[in-house]
Design goal:
By secondary structure, this protein is α/β, with parallel strands linked by helices. It contains 17 helices and 8 strands. Strand 2, helix 4 and strand 3 form a beta-alpha-beta unit.
Length: 424
């Protein structure tokens, strides 16, 4: 016991903590540098002539309150109607989802399976049905039932596909950013990711990450490699699976999907816990594969993807470091690298980033002034990720799907009107 609490124990502890601090500093600096590439939009050449055909697939589980406005919205997109079709997978529904979707013009496919439950399984089932149809499509676009979609969406996706891209992620906006403080802070997190992570990666040629909705995937890729993404974060899983075959995901900043954010903190907690479980699970399957592939092929996009998968581990490592640093600080015999190489402590740096980054993202994408109000409670949202990540790690083998109830039944026109009012 004297060893652990004496000078020798302190020295041993300090040596062990050095690599921990190095990891935190290096990855914090990496994300700071990466975000700098999101401060601008590089010039893009767009192909505006409609050419590609699309199957718009909506995975829906008991979504009678929101499915109608989405299908109506999709059928009114600014793209030739003969070049796309809307399909709704009514997955284990016991409400009127299928009836409503069919009445407003969608092709509805009902699926019932008590064992293979969840969005990933529903999509895999639907893709197999699409492949057997007489009519074939150039690409599949995946939406959630609570979405609304900007009218130019398929024009932007057509342009990307015509330029040879195979997997495309759109800009994820919010259709209810000002309903509650939770929807506001949740929206800020998405706006920040859109600009300073997704756009940044696109600007320097790295692979982007699929975001669960607004995902466009070339049909030949689905046929060749299969979907096979049935984890709790099927979007992240497919992104990493495709990347291991050398197929990167690209970004369409001008193609926008408006996603419904959870109204309460409890709802957001459950949803983010599912994401954390899924990311830890996917990291276990692909982290080392991507690191090895990046080293062997000397391509940084694989290393960047591995760093993205490492995020839950980084949160846990940083939390452990901060807590031990705090305890050791009270004992007065432990100095950390942050205090040696930076004028601020790690907490002060983190606090500065929490406000500077969101403000930059909101300003660059010219979001309404009301969006900035959410910055007051934004730290609550950010720090709540810490227990969520730990729970996600502990529950990483639990594959039970947690469904988020959606209730914000508004039309696309109402969203556009709301954004105009907020901007003014």
């Amino acid at each position: 016991m004297d060893f652990f609490f004496g000078p020798a124990g302190t020295q041993f502890f300090n040596v062990i903590m050095i690599p921990v601090q190095v990891i935190i500093i290096v990855l914090t600096f990496y994300y700071f540098v990466l975000s700098m590439f999101g401060l601008y939009r590089k010039r893009e050449q767009k192909i505006l002539i409609p050419e590609k055909t699309f199957a718009l697939v909506v995975a829906a589980h008991n979504e009678e309150k929101v499915i109608g406005p989405l299908v109506e919205n999709l059928l009114q997109l600014d793209y030739p109607k003969e070049l796309y079709e809307v399909f709704v997978v009514a997955d284990n529904c016991i409400d009127k989802t299928a009836l409503i979707a069919r009445n407003v013009g969608a092709s509805v496919h009902q699926r019932f399976n008590d064992i293979k439950r969840g969005k990933g399984y529903a999509l895999e089932w639907m893709f197999q049905r699409l492949f057997r149809m007489e009519r074939q499509f150039d690409a599949v676009v995946i939406f959630d039932a609570d979405n609304l979609v900007k009218e130019n969406f398929l024009v932007e996706m057509n342009s990307k596909l015509c330029q040879g891209e195979k997997i495309i992620q759109c800009y994820l906006d919010s259709k209810n950013p000002f309903d509650t403080w939770v929807t506001n802070t949740f929206s800020i997190a998405f706006w920040l990711s859109n600009r300073l992570l997704q756009l940044a990666r696109y600007n320097i040629g790295l692979s982007n990450v699929l975001g669960g909705t607004g995902m466009c995937i070339s049909t030949d890729i689905l046929r060749k490699f299969g979907w096979g993404a049935t984890s709790l974060t099927e979007d992240l899983e497919f992104s990493m699976k495709a990347l291991t075959f050398g197929i990167k995901t690209t970004w369409a900043h001008d193609a926008v999907v408006y996603d419904e954010k959870p109204l309460t903190f409890v709802q957001s907690w459950r949803q983010r816990k599912r994401w954390a479980q899924g990311q830890v699970d996917v990291a276990g399957h692909y982290f080392f594969t991507l690191v090895i592939k990046g080293v062997r092929e000397r391509k940084f996009m694989y290393i960047d993807a591995a760093v993205h998968l490492f995020q839950p581990a980084l949160v846990m490592i940083a939390t452990f470091f901060m807590l031990t640093n705090l305890v050791a600080g009270f004992q007065g015999h432990y100095a950390n690298i942050f205090s040696l190489v930076m004028p601020w402590t790690g907490w002060q740096i983190l606090s500065a980033i929490q406000y500077v980054y969101p403000v930059a993202a909101l300003a660059l994408d010219r979001l309404p002034w009301r969006a900035y109000v959410g910055l007051i409670l934004y730290p609550v949202f950010i720090y709540s990720w810490i227990p969520i990540v730990f729970l996600g790690f502990l529950k990483r083998k639990d594959k039970q799907w947690s469904h988020t109830q959606h209730t914000r039944s508004i039309s696309y026109e109402e969203v556009v009107k709301q954004k105009k009012v907020s901007t003014n």
